[in-house]
Amino acid sequence: MNFEHTSVLARETIEGLAVKPDGVYVDGTLGGGGHASLICASLTKAGLFVGIDRDAEAIRAGRAKLEPYDCRKRFIQSNFDRIKAVLFENEIGNINGVVLDLGVSSYQLDNPERGFSYMRRAPLDMRMDRSEDGGVCGITAEDIVNGYGEQELARIIRIYGEERWAGRIAKFIVTEREKVPITDTERLVEIIKAAIPASARRDGPHPAKRTFQAIRIEVNDELGALSRAVHDFIDVLTPGGRLAIITFHSLEDRIVKEAFRKREDPCECPPGLPACVCGKVSDVRRITHKPITASAAELSDNPRARSAKLRVLEKL
Fold first, then answer.
1. Looking at domain 10-106+223-315, which of 3.40.50.300, 3.30.1360.10, 3.40.50.150, 3.40.50.720 is its CATH number?
2. Percent of the chain with pLDDT strictly greater than 90
3. In this structure, are strands 309-315 and 48-53 parallel, antiparallel, or unpaired?
4. pTM for the whole structure
């Protein structure tokens, strides 16, 4: 199966990055190489592109896809929250721009053996990094579904999935796994459907969507990685460098929005003081005060773009 992925908000992202032909640019979520291709096409031989991804298959596919471009290229299998270490280990200084296209790629969703999709029967895996130590301490979705306590399952599903029926779903999972371990996506979907009242399943997204999202986020520590990475990426930008982040659900967007706001207004003085005395000053400006969303034309071609939001920040 080829690693294919339709990049969302591609034109808007490249415009937001304002690529300098001889600059150094990082794609922290290389995926199918869609955004990376546009960046590389904008770089000259003097420019450097750095592609980072947790998924070894994405690194292999990205290397092949970007081979025709003239710019210098480096491909690194790692998590983007290690950006400072990655740059240091590869003797790369500060950079001119970064793109993060968060979430799961079309390839990962459509590849049954990865276990991300609630539409296909597959082992409960969901690791973006399938090496021996991939995931949080190497855990898979199967480990979470069969090993977490009922309250912890409910907490994850409620917070990460924003699922109103989290308590019932967790209870049903625990009851069913006592009969026989839950090892594939099809059985998990059946359990989730049974937990959610029929009246609540008639409208809205697939009943398993939120729970699968929650488990995937837990397996890969997605929100923790994002929280750690945003400020680190800003730190390694050169003056005038830009950070473009595409999110796909409210939890991610909230983290990015708050980090951008805090970086733009870092003052920690108590309200009511006549002047700032903490000495913290802004080193960024927001290019997008409101997130950019997909156009009607893009949504027609790629329905998966419907929840995408792009925010861009510039280092001063």
1. 3.40.50.150
2. 81
3. unpaired
4. 0.91
